[in-house]
Specification:
- The model has no long low-confidence stretch (mean pLDDT 82).
- The chain is mainly alpha-helical and 98 residues long.
- Helix content is 64%, strand content 0%.
- α1 packs antiparallel against α4.
Length: 98
């Protein structure tokens, strides 16, 4: 009666697809890219001074980027993980609304 299943093995196909997508698009670009995109660097710079709005963008993305960079992890890997986490959350909300 000992059945050992990993948490992903019993997961729904949609959850497995999201986990695979997050893994591929977090690790792949983190290994390939040497630096962050200029828009991301700009948002990271803005994040040093928390405000209720910035010149070109609403504040949430800048706040999230700043929070992730303060963790002290490698910036490219951590920001790619952040982008995929926000994509996964968005996919769940879209899936639930349909």
């Amino acid at each position: 009666m000992l059945q050992s299943q990993s948490s992903a093995a019993g997961a729904s196909p949609a959850l497995r697809a999201v986990l695979i997508q997050v893994a591929i698009w977090t690790v792949g670009p983190a290994l390939i890219f040497g630096n962050l995109h200029s828009d991301t660097l700009e948002a990271a710079y803005w994040g040093r001074d928390l405000a209720l709005g910035y010149a070109k963008h609403p504040p949430l993305a800048t706040w999230l980027i700043d929070a992730v960079l303060r963790l002290g992890l490698p910036p490219v890997l951590s920001l790619m993980a952040l982008s995929q986490a926000t994509m996964a959350v968005t996919a769940v909300f879209v899936w639930k609304s349909v």
